[in-house]
Structures are given as C-alpha cells and as structure tokens.
Amino acid sequence: MDMVNTQYIEQCIIKYEKIKNNTNVATAENNEVLAKLIKSMSHGFIKTNYDNWLEQCLLQEDWQKLNNLIFQQMRYRLLPGSSGGYDHCRNILPVLEAFACGDNNVLERILPHELGLTKNGYPFYIVISNLLMALWYKDDTLLKLAIPAAEKFIGTKKPQWERSGVAFLLSLHKKDVEAVGEHLQDFCTGYMRADFTKAMKQLCVPAHGLYSLAEKLIPTELFQQIKMPEHKNFSKGFAKWRNENPHPKLYLYFEYPPSLGILNQIFMAPVAKSIISQPYLQKDNPHHSPQLKNVWFLDEEAMLKGFVENI
Question: For residues 22 and 30, what is the distance between their CA atoms, to the nearest angstrom?
C-alpha cells in the first residue's frame, strides 16, 4: 500500500474509533469524522499500488486475484466527495469496470433510472451513459432519444475508442454479433492511443466490462458467437474465467490490517448512489455564467452523506 499523508488518515481513524466506542457521543459527530476520512480518500490521500499489483496478477494468471483488484480499484474510483463538474455520466468508466468484475449492481446506483438521461459532461460520457441506461432498463422512451444521438456520435471525428464503445452498444441493440466483435477490437486498439496511464493501457478493463455486459443484454447463444479481441490489452484468460464465473465472489485485493479496518468497510459498502442538483439555480452571482443556472451537477456532499449513513 502506498499511502499519502498517512499521519492524517491515521488520526482520522483513531478519532473515528474513539467516537464510535463512546455511546455518549452523538452519531452526527461520528458521521462527520467518517465523512472527512472518505473525502480525503476521494481526493487521493490514500493510493493503491495498482500498477505493481496488476503486473503480478497478469504474470501469475490468477484471475480471482485480478477480479479482486479490478473490484477494489473501481470502488476506490467511486468514493464520493470530489466534485467533477458533471452530472451522473461522470462515472461511466467505473460502471464498465464494475461489469468487468461482476459487481453488476453498481450501474443502478450510478445511473439510476429515475434520474433520466444525462446532459452535462464529456460528450462520450453522455452518449454512452444514455445508451447504456436505455438498453439496461429496456426503456423505449430513452431509446428513442439515445439511439439518434449515438448514431450521430459515431459519425464524428471523436477518438476511435470512444466511437467504437458507442458502436458496440448500438450493435448489441441490433444483435449484430459480428459487428459487436469488430467494435470491441477497435475499442481495444483505440484505447492504446488515449491519454491513460501505462497500467490502464496494459489491461483495458472497460473492454472487459463491455464484453461482460454483452452477456447480460443478449441471449446466450448470441453472446457465445462474439469474437474476443486479439489485442495485448485484452486478457482472453480472464475473459474465459469470467464466462465460467458469471457471479464471482467480490473480495478486496488488499485487505487493510485491523488498525485500519474501517477502510475495508468503506470499500465494501454499497457505492454512493448518484444524486444531482442545480446549485446555481437560485444564485445571482456575477462570477457565474448565466448558462449554469439550469445545469445539473452531481451533488457530491449529499452522496457522501448517504454513503456514510450506509456504513
């Protein structure tokens, strides 16, 4: 484990444990300390050794351990508390990572049906989030809006991996398994040209997520016809293991010692459910663009509060 500002984290945990064990202290104070700890984690005060751990998993071909690692890294990326300026489309890549490791319940917490289509964010995130929601919830109303936007997107000059990811979902909707395989291959190829870390490029986890997602959206006989990508950043061994283990046990790759046990609870708790709000709606501030008044953003503070109450 690589820890940044370890002393601060340990102080938070010590304070939390003292308050938790003191029945005379209000729950609100307990939750406040826990919220500070989680927010610190979401801002990167604790980092994992993902690069080295990934290398070990791939060399050993230990697919359960690799699944554990993908699970833990995804949960780390979904900790609430750091604002990104987008609505619920913000966390679409961790949603794909969740499908890669079999944590399928994550989608309905990150992209809840009741929030409807996403509108504020990076174009690729918006388009693929909306198409995924429409397909997952089998919502014809959403599909009528999401499909034209997706078709328009794949005709743009956006990065190859982004266009291929959207085209993959469109092909799934059409049940064109040959095209599905081609788009997944292009997704892996284009992913290597994107601005990601070396470790992220070493294993294209979102591609594994798309592949596992396909098994949930189309009949088994069609899914079995999808050709796996022939690319160094796609592990056929792991993909085959996931096919044989459609509901894998979800464990942490690195379990923290008892003195830091609250960290294990944080990672294993249900991910924070997306909540959106319009923070500028009632604010007349000359420093804020009038265009922001009606824009929806993830309400990270509300999400953090709900997450803490679940632990």
Answer: 10
Distances (CA, A) of 238 to 52, 149, 250: 18, 33, 15
Estimate to the nearest angstrom the gap between the alpha carbon of 300 and the chain centroid. 15
| Start-to-end Cα distance in the chain | 23
Of 122, 217, 118, residue with least CA distance to 168: 217
Q: For residues 13 and 307, give the distance between their C-alpha atoms in angstroms, rounded to a whole number.
A: 17
Q: Which two tokens stand for residue 58?
A: 């791939």
Query: Which SS3 state, helix, strand or coil, does residue 27 take?
Result: helix
Query: Rounded to an integer, what distance in angstroms lies between the CA atom of residue 268 and that of residue 41?
Result: 14
Q: Are 96 and 206 in contact (CB under 8 A)?
A: yes
Q: In this structure, which long-range contacts are made by residues 297-303, counting pairs with CB atoms below 8 Å and at least 24 apart in sequence? A: 297/83, 297/85, 297/86, 297/87, 297/120, 298/83, 298/84, 298/86, 298/87, 298/88, 298/90, 298/274, 299/275, 300/80, 300/81, 300/82, 300/83, 302/275, 302/277, 303/80, 303/272, 303/273, 303/274, 303/275
pTM attached to this predicted model: 0.91
pLDDT (0 to 100) of residue 284: 63
| Below-50 pLDDT ranges, the chain | 1-4
CA distance 105 to 107: 6
pLDDT of residue 19: 60
Q: Each residue of 202-220: pLDDT tens digit?
A: 999 999 999 999 999 999 9
Amino acid at 5: N
Provide the pLDDT for residue 4: 43
* Three-class DSSP category at 284: coil
